[in-house]
Amino acid sequence: MIARRPLLAPAVRVALAGVFATLGACGTRTGLYDSIGPTSQAGVDAAHPLADCRAAPWLLFDVQDNQPNGVSTIHAMRADGTQLHAVPLPHSPAYYPSVSPDGTKLLYTTSFVPTSDGGNDTALYLFDFASQTALLVVSSFSMSYSALSPDLQTVAYSANYGLYAIGADGTNNRSLVVGSPGNGAYGHPTFASDSKTILYGTLGVVGSVESDGTNNQTLLTGVVGSFWYPNPAFSPDYSQIAVGIFCDQTSPFDLLVFQYASLAETACSSGTVLTTVSESSAENMGATDPSWGPTGLIAYGSYSDVWVIPATGGTPTNVTSKLTGDAGAFTASDPVWAPACAAVP
Questions:
Q1: What is residue 68's three-state secondary structure?
Q2: 306: which DSSP letter?
Q3: d(CA 272, CA 242)
Q4: Mean pLDDT for the chain?
Q5: Domains and CATH numbers, the chain
């Protein structure tokens, strides 16, 4: 059996004290989109409204301070490497960002000291970019990834090894798929265009379930039972998915693209290879938590950094190395693109 990256509990990933030093001064260009001029702070060119933010949309990701008492914060930067900054949020630590399909809201998780009776230790908030206010959606044990449906009515989230759904207003919380330490977790949910079908990653496979808990099925099979969670990401038009996966015990680790409509009948090995990510490389090891952006770039986490690659394939670009120092004091992970000209503060 191949041992792969587990779905980490928030309590393992973050410390619960300390102050994170902002790193806005690190927002230098990375070489990505060098042909695009620097964007203004508002992201809009005066002569060509919306041109800059469409060419260089926001990319959000976790930054973990690896120093004693360091905490995790959510950072944002333009696709061209400019305007790197910590997103001002009402809660700290903040991690596992997920931007709504319309670009108006941000789901994020925070953690706190659990109660003496072993109660909830994490909470999921829905942050509105325009008003900069946060609504508590749900609190639970060891929450991580989440997603808001295209119709903005339903939140899917991972907690306590299982997969859950709840109304965006915090009502009608329900269990969809039950996990356990013995049979693995269900993580990184993402909605199909119908706002009902939820894709997720679990031990070596990609599955789907309806938001009412019915029709749970396997869509893509890799190395079943491995500790790798092949988390899927939809293309902006919902016609394709990108996923990092080992297709069998002898195959390399690949970032693959599949047609969504035929996914359940498709062999893993038939996916279109965007890049092969060798685990022998300290700087680009594996491809976790992909996100398919509005300009055709796919972002993914690898080792201590966030990388991007065109959806047509090519050479991956490390977009956070100047922030992390390649496994230095900070680690970047869990990238997510914001649609077009989302008003990220």
A1: coil
A2: E
A3: 9
A4: 83
A5: 10-337 (2.120.10.30)
